[in-house]
Amino acid sequence: MRSWWNNLRERLRLAPDDLLRDRIYRRLWSSILISSLGGQVTMLALPLTAAVLLHATPTQMGTLTTMELLPFILFSLPSGVWLDRVRKLPVYIAGELTLAAAVATVPIAWWLGWLGMPWMYMVGFFIGLVHTTAGSASQIVLTQVVPRERLVEAHAKNALASSGAEVAGPGVAGALIRVLGAPVALLVDAVLLVGSSWILRGLKIEEQRGSTPPGRFWADLRAGLQFVWRQRLLIALASCVGLWQMCHQAATVVQILFATRTLGMSEHAVGLSYVGLGVGTVTASLLGDRISQKLGPGPCLVTGFAGTAAGWLLLAVAPVGPWGVACFALMLSCFGVGAILIFINFISLRQAVTPEPLLGRMTSTMRWLILLPAAPGAMLGGWLGEHMGLRWSLGFAGIGCSLLALGAWRLPIIRSVRELPRAVHVSGTEAVEEGTV
């Protein structure tokens, strides 16, 4: 028994150079873990409130998702210019607190009898607004804590924190929703977000910020757009991940409706099925860095597209009954693996190629580009689900993403990326690449 325990401790012992031995990164990682636990509650409780309590139609679910995406389309570009002029950590902390306040309004409105789809649309818009600014800031904070050459490893560890939450979170969220109701369960997320912001408070991070005078706002905005436009790798990544987002949103807006109305699953059963998402993301987070090193970031990205496509196609043809429930959980697992492989490589590649003074504008520009197709995807998924059937939305997502994986593999600039590129040199609005991609 003692030998077994010693072997387990040895396996869990951190390597001397492990990122988690760094105190600042460890606090950042802990904050991500706590906020991710709360995010699991919101991910289930918000759509379940709309679908079960408010009896939302597929089109209304698509509109709810679109309201969450709209701030990215409206504010991503100017927020990037602003982020390059301010400290990112305070923006990140303020975003966590604002998000806590936004989700807490749902149970308050429910108690007061004000809750309806318009209120849900408003909350969705505020959630998207926070993710537009604070979400970009959080990604930049990581580059200020971790060396560029270890970004894939750091994103994989961050994904592991999120994945750990996705294993435990759905079961806990499902139980909370069953006991308290979906609206009240959102208060748990609010409390956890406050805890996350408290951990981040006082974190000592050195950063470089541009000293451009306020009158150069539009010039700076144009410089960020020009930087992204001149990097062939960034344009290829934005195009591929943007199309993936269209497929993703088309499936997301109907998958809760499919589970509850077609498969007849209860809110608690849906919550338990989301453990499959956690299993997939944990697996990909543990192995993602090694897979990326073996295949290369580009091919690993394409593998992620194929994995999510397989999950959506499976659910589109799932039968009603126990096998259908199993297919729902398996789809979530496939999505978890694929999404982690996509984003640890996508984010690492775009950060590696960008110099620090342009990180805010690059991040916001890339998020804007990839989410432009997301809102039409959500609306199309809702329309297909309401007028042709929920399986059509899932089938569209699966077939579309399969074609995307094939197309991305045929792009040499994606297929040939076997290691992270070096950052470019910039002078004014000019960008000259230092390394080869």
Structural class: mainly alpha
Strand order of the largest sheet: 1-2
Shape field: globular
Percent helix, as a range, is over 70%
What is the radius of gyration computed over CA atoms, rounded to a whole number of angstroms? 21 Å
Seen as an oligomer or otherwise, the chain set is single chain
Strand percent estimate = under 5%
Please tally the β strands and state the result.
2
Largest sheet, strands/sense/barrel: 2 strands, antiparallel
Query: How are helices and strands ordered from N to C?
Result: HHHHHHHHHHHHHHHHHEE
Span from first to last CA?
51 Å
State the helix count: 17
- What number is the mean pLDDT? 81
Q: List segments where confidence is low: pLDDT < 50 over at least 5 consecutive residues.
A: 4-12, 428-437
Concise overview:
This protein is mainly alpha-helical and 437 residues long.
Task: Please provide a written account of the structure.
The chain is an all-alpha fold and 437 residues long. It is 79% helix and 1% strand. It has 17 helices and 2 strands. The chain has helices at 2-12, 23-53, 58-83, 88-112, 117-145, 151-180, 182-200, 217-230, 232-262, 267-273, 275-295, 297-316, 322-352, 359-371, 374-387, 390-409, 412-415; strands at residues 425-427, 430-432. Strands 1-2 form a two-stranded antiparallel ribbon. Helix 2 (23-53) runs parallel beside helix 6, helix 3 (58-83) packs parallel to helix 5 and helix 6 packs antiparallel against helix 11. The relative contact order is 0.15.
